[in-house]
Write a structure and sequence with these properties.
1 helix; four-stranded antiparallel beta sheet; 149 residues; mainly beta; three-stranded antiparallel beta sheet; 3% helix
Length: 149
């Protein structure tokens, strides 16, 4: 089963643009994520935009978060690490309830406003394989960036 949900901190709040990710056309691979509230991305700075969304999906899948194709040209925004990787065990973690975020770098010499309800990027579910000799047994201990050292 795959599903998107609002994180607990947004449930019942009306001061955010609450819209679950959705596909724009019947042949779209990606689910569009919408900005929950207006935010300014400062010139030549990094801005993390929490989406208010978490995703539940099978353990042999990942969710890849990609930039909108128009963001670099029209807004000067690039995703800092190129693509976001969300693991299945990220859902509901103790640090941030599994809330996904887009991390943008504004490469322009001026600040950029992203309005509430604007599309941030898209997510695509992808199956992956493990090697026959895989020995990973660790358990997730946190949220954003928690599996690195």
């Amino acid at each position: 089963m795959r599903k998107f949900e609002f994180v607990n901190r947004l449930k019942g709040r009306s001061d955010f643009y609450n819209r679950l990710p959705e596909r724009s056309t019947k042949y779209s691979a990606g689910y569009d994520f919408f900005n929950p509230k207006a935010i300014i991305c400062k010139s030549h700075q990094i801005t993390m935009i929490p989406t208010g969304i978490k995703a539940k999906f099978p353990e042999d899948e990942m969710l890849l978060l990609f930039n909108r194709s128009s963001n670099p040209k029209k807004k000067g925004l690039i995703i800092l690490n190129g693509v976001g990787v969300v693991d299945s065990d990220y859902y509901g973690n103790a640090d941030n309830d599994g809330e996904m975020a887009f991390v943008f770098y504004n490469m322009l010499d001026e600040d950029v406003l992203i309005e509430a309800g604007e599309k941030l990027g898209q997510g695509i579910f992808v199956k992956y394989a493990k090697t026959d000799d895989d020995i990973a047994e660790g358990e997730r201990q946190g949220g954003f960036g928690s599996t690195g050292k």
